[in-house]
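Async update (no meeting this week)

Hi team, since we skipped the sync, here's where things stand on the single-chain job. The sequence we agreed to prioritize is pasted below, unchanged from the tracker. I ran it this morning and attached the output directly underneath so nobody has to dig for it. Comments welcome in thread, and please keep replies under the output.
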Amino acid sequence: MLVSQRTCILDSEIVIALPDHAPSPAPRMSAVAAGAASALRQLLLDPRNKQPLAIIKGFRNGFVYGVKIRLPHALVMTFLFHDGSLREKLLYILRATFQHAKNLAFFVTIYKSLLYLLGRLSGRGHPVHNFLSAFVGGYFVFGENNKVNMQINLYLLSRITLGL
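Output:
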């Protein structure tokens, strides 16, 4: 119930003081900025762009997830089990984190891109498209022999074995 312009009573007990003046309006956008914002909004809301935007979002999410997963792991494992100066340890942590994040981002990009292309070529999605996309993405991204890929491959093997 609104008592006046300055006070509002809620549930007959709580009193909230409202500001005497309206907040200052946001600065106006120029015509060019408004046009660009409108064009961007149309691009993002167009249903035809859903899949290509999902590929971009997947790249970003893969990179972010890779950093969130690998950074704490590399930090703990490096300080527990690696020898070397503080600088060498920090460089190793950053390299491992970047490698993990890059791998996940590229895998998601390849996977979603191939899934999109196969769906467009066949006219509809098919379960074999998921397998083919994941196989090709995994081959190109996780096929390189390094410590990060070895850990990811062992993790995936354990998940697949558990699932069977």
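Quick observations from my side:
Confidence is low (pLDDT under 50) at residues 7-11.
Residues 119 and 126 are 7 Å apart (CA to CA).
Reply here if anything looks off.
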